[in-house]
Every structure is written in structure tokens, then in C-alpha cells.
Design brief:
Strand content of chain B: 15-25%
Number of strands of chain A: 16
Oligomer: heterodimer
Helix content of chain A: 25-40%
CATH superfamily of chain B: LigB-like
Order of helices and strands of chain A: EHHEEEEHEHEHEHHHHEEHEEEHEHHEE
Distance between the termini of chain B: 21 Å
Number of domains of chain B: 1
Number of strands of chain B: 10
CATH architecture of the largest domain in chain A: 3-Layer(aba) Sandwich
CATH topology of chain B: Protocatechuate 4,5-dioxygenase, Chain B
Largest interface: A-B, 43 and 41 residues
Shape of chain B: globular
CATH topology of the largest domain in chain A: Protocatechuate 4,5-dioxygenase, Chain B
Number of helices of chain A: 13
Amino acid sequence: MSGEIVKSLIVPAHPHPVLCPEKNEGWQKVRDAYDEAKRQIEESDADLIIIYSTLWPSIIGHQIQADPNPEWVLVDADFHDLGSIHYSLKIDEEFAHAWSKSNLSRGLESRTVAYEGFPIDVGSVVALKLLNPDNRIPAVICSTNVYSNRAETTVLAKSCLDVIKAQGKKAVAVSVMSLSNRMFTEPIEPHEDRIHSPKDDEWNRKILEFLEKGRLEDVGQLSRTIHDQIRVKKVVAFKPMWWLSAMNNNRNDLTGTVLAYEAIHGAGAAVVVLDPESNGTGDKEYDEDDVDFYGGDRDVLDSESSNDDTPQMDTGPALYDPVEGETTVNTSKAPKPVGAYPHARREGDLIYLSGVGPRQPGDNSIPGGPIKDASGKPLDYDIKAQTKAVVDNIARILEEAGSSIENVIDVTSFLVDMDRDFQGYNEVWAETLGKVGPTRTTLAIRALPTPIAVEMKVIAKA
Amino acid sequence: MAKGSIVAACLAPHPPHLVYADNPPQNEPNSEGGWEQLRWGYERLRESIKDIDYDVIVIMSPHWQTYIGTHFLGVEKFQSKSVDPIFPNLFRYNYDINVDVELAKSIHDQAKSDGLAVKMMENPDFRVDYGTIVSCHMIRPEWDKPIVALSSNRGMNYYSVEVMQEMMIELGKSTAKAIEESGKKCLLVASNSLSHRHFVSETNPPEDMSKEHITSHAMHLWDMRMIELMRQGKSQQIINEMPEFCEQAIAETDGGALTWLLSTIGIPEEPAKLHGYGTIIGTGNAIMEWPVREWEAQV
């Protein structure tokens, strides 16, 4: 299966375009732009709408809505006099659970929520009411973590992409957000509405100029500056561009269209559509580190005991840069070798991979945990997480070679504890490579060079 | 008509964990307890005010956040379910709340005439925020008193803690004036924690007290300092140090409720009573009471 992002949107969160667009020419233009975006989604072959809402803050990692049919009546905290919005949404429960699970496998804290009466935030309700009024396309909604940084937000998107690919979804990614978010702090008449200050307006137009040129990653990398310049420091900082850019593989050559830019009670409200077709131009002006797995501190609760009890991890043998040669294939997206060999070689129509384990590129961490500490003391570990990480590493190496996981034809697997691990390994196999259908041999061995439980030797078609 | 008065003012934190741990019939999730130090603190507060005759609870919560001035609940009855968007696993509470709209409107009108941006919230579909519900439940689980609920105007976000405090001090004066003219006896409540840095992961079960502690020593020092200032009656010093406290302890007092409360009772030099202190998912929480009725009796 090959899922993909078919369209990305930036849309405003205020309720005015739903409840009273007719009261202000600009609000009506935002509503019209929403309607145009809806039309474009309907014309695409999208089968999933993914909402990243800046108006749903979370503390315990990221939360993903998994109630298949949340229903309630929403009233905005500030604009309650504009009326109530009744909502009944259709959520892709299966995708929600898979995304949360994928988050965990990439080192993030994550959970799904499915409770009657859960207060879906105003941004998500407004966006789905206008983009998907008849619930033709199932949606999924994710919170914004109050404390998350760029790395976490980027990894959140990558784990979402993992699921899109695994489930073969054609997804629309939506960031619900204001540009400048400074509202007037006193009531105004609708006809008095305008962007709060010339400075806010100037920055908004610069952001939109970038987006119209498809330079999403550049806007992402300006997020901290934008936050300082035109954002009131509310609960959630200006981070949705990090998510949206990562959802688009950090590209700067998308095809961008600004459908509307208006003021809503002083804040910058824009409807922007970003199509994945390359506009043929653009490259990154500067580049922050890319990140695939979150390795930050997530164990605050255990900090007191960490001084005494945390086992010293077995860091394994020294790492090598992969050997370069005429037909070698190497990538920074796969873990470094533990000897002088390449990640893979291309010979004729075939690609031969060196043994691939679950270690992660960059920090060399082991999803699911190592099997022993530095003193050799056995540790509990998750064979499923390790196996999944092996498959992901294989996919990255094959993609670097211009091939894909779909082209794997033969696999030899090595397990250090067949009795304990075969079932979990086999389950992940069935969900991944099992669907591709290569021949397979599974061997029990005494040990591997690093503290891992599984490794695979792969041959694939080029 | 006799002058209205404030019988007591309380700092009453609102983490939903407290209601969850109490297992009241209104809340859907069940727990094995937890956070007893704070729940017993609330018990002491309830004991302290149980014989006091009062008409209404006047409360400000930072979880009804408004950016266009201060808003007031303006519908006489709210009956619905409150689900905490951050801890929905702990708090799904069926509420039935009566509002003293007359007093709310009086404070609103007074504040408006004093030059503050204010608005009545008159949409019957509105859901009352969980901060208001938790604090009121812990203070008066019988729910037999009407409330006046004020939103938290995010002046701090737009300007600074200093500007927020100026606004809250003015709002406190307006509140005091309106209460006095109403002839009603009021219990005043600021619903917020002190230091407010959370853990970002949750134990299983959430009430596993072996994992509960303050997030850092610095947070502990700030919490103890503010409590001690309250215990010594140094309200003005609390206001003076509020900007540093909010910045360094990421304090939830940035929502303005504590400053509003202190202003409403005249920035007292009389000491507050500490009924309890404890941490909840790393944040610092104190239950304090300023027994205003006793000061008036002494005069």
C-alpha cells in the first residue's frame, strides 16, 4: 500500500465563518474560501482528514480523538453571543489508535481519547463543519502538546505518515490556526474589524508570500521568530507549521494558493491550500536538523530514582561510517554499521542488504529497549517494537536505493530468543513484510553484536 | 438593607484529580483514592466554614479563558456534563449549578462603570469550565449555594503580569463595591494552583502516590515562599513578587485570580490559614483561607 498526503490546508479557528459570515465582508471571504477548499477536497480522492488543532492543548503527550461519533453543542469561550454550534463528527477510530501506537514506537508520549461529551475544540469543529459538513470523509483530530518542541512535533507528523503509508490513506492534513493571533481586547462592531496592527499585517503577508511559493519548510523554520514577533503568548506556541511541514517531508517546492486572508476580531485568518505537486522551484534556505525519533526526557516521574537504579545501558561495539563503493547504497536514515561494510550493494537487478537491526539512526537507541544492560543483566524488552524498527530501517535503506519495501524477495531473520520472541516477531511480520510476501527463514542464534533481539538479512529487487 | 460582606476568601486549586480521588456520584471514573493531603486540606477548609452563613460563592477560574475582557456566567441554571480535555480519563462530571445572575450582573455593571472590559455570558448551551466545578465541588459538595463565576481575562498573555495585576486589582475593587451594595454574604474563591510545571507522563494508575512529587526544588521553594507570605499577611508583597513568581514557577496565578481575590478583600495584612499543601502531577497546590469574618469581629 502507498498512502500519501493529497492536500494540506491552513485554516482559521474562530467561529465567525460558521455563525455569522454575513456580518462582515472579510468573514464572508473566509467562509467562501473555506467553501472552495471543501470543493477541492471533494474533487480529490481523499479518504481521511487529519486535524492538528492549536486550540486543543494537552499535557500528557499528544491526545488523539478516537470516539467514532463525537456529538455535542459547542459554545466559544469568548464569542458565546454569536450562537451555538451543534456538531456530530465521524472519526476514523482505527487510524486514531494506529497513530497513537505509532507515536509510542517513535518515542513520544501519546494516547487516544473516546469519552461521551468530550469537548471537541472550537478550531476542529469549525474546520470540520466547513470542510466536511456531511462527514463524507472520516477525520482524525490531534491535540497540541503544551510543552512539545520542534523535535516532538516533527516526530508526531512522521509517525502519522507511517500510518498513512501503512493503511494506504489519501489524506488531507489541516493545521487549524491563526497567523498573528492578537485579538482586540475589547468588543468591536463587525464593520470595525481589521488586522490588529500594521506589524502583524506585514508579517502575515510575508508568511503568505512564502506559502504561495510553496516554501512551507521555510515558514516552519521561521516559527520561533514568528512566535516572538506576532503571537500573543497563549497556551500553545506557534508550532503547527512544524507539523504541517513534516507531514510534507519538509518540502519547499509545494504548489501554494492563498484563498483568503482577512481579519477576525484583529487576528490574522487565512485559508491556504498546499498541493503536493512540485512547483519546480525552491530549495531550503537553511536547514534545522531533521529528526526521526524523539529521544528527549520523558521519564520525569522516575527522575528521583534514576540516580541509583537506572541500569547502565550496553552501548555495544564502536560504530563505523558505512563503506563507500561503486555499487554501495548508504543512508544517514539507517543506523551506522558496527563494522566496515555498507548498508547495501546493488548488483544487477538485485539489492543485497547487510544485516539490519532495530537501532535508530542518530542516537543509536533501540525501540522496545535493549535486551541487557552493561553488566549483562537481562532487561525486559518489546520484541514487537524491535521488529517494527527493523522493518522501518529496511524500508529506509531500500528507499535510498530507489527501491521499496514492496520489492523484498527473500529474508533471513535471526532471533536471540526464539521461545520468547517468535510470536511477537511473527505478528509484526504478518502486518508488514508478510503482506509483501518474500520467502523467509528464521534462525535462533546465541547473540548479536549489539544488545538487540532481532536482525534481518534482506535481498530485494532494484 | 445591610451591607454585603465577604465572610471568607479561599485559594482553592482545581486539579480534576481531587474530584477523581474523592469518587463522588457525579463523576464517572472511579479511583482508589490519592492526594489525601490536599483532600484532607479541603476537609479542614469545609470544617472551618461550615457554620458560617453565606449566600453565594464568587469564583474566578483560569480555565474559562477570555481575551476580550472579563466574562460572567449570566444564566440562572446550568446542567450538563464537564469533561476535562486534558485529563478526560479522570474527570467526566455531571453538574447542576445555580447562578446568582443578579449579583453577577451587579459586579459586571460596576466593573463596566469603572472602565473595565466586561461581558455577560447568556448562552444557555455554554459549558461551565472544570476549574470552577472542581473548586466549588471541593468547597461545597452539596452544591446548595448559587455561584457567581468570572472568567480569567488573559491580560498577562497580551501584556504582562504587571498589567494583568493592575486590571485584577481594579476588578477586585469593583467586585468588593458590588458585593457591599448587594447586601449579600459571599464566599470568595480564587481557583488556581501555585507552581504549575506538570509532569508530561502519567502513572498507572494515576493515583499512584509513590510517583507524586514537586517537579523541582525551585518550584518547592517558590511555593513555600508564597505560602509563608500568605501566612504572614504580606499580601502587598505577594503582589509585588507576582511577576517573578509567575515567570520562574510558571505559576497559575498568572490567570489573575489570586490578585483579584487579594484586591477584593483589601490587600489584607491579616494572616491566611493554611489548610493543606500538596503536589498534583508535579504542580504545587495550597488550600488557604483568609477568615475575613473574624477580622471584622475583632474591629
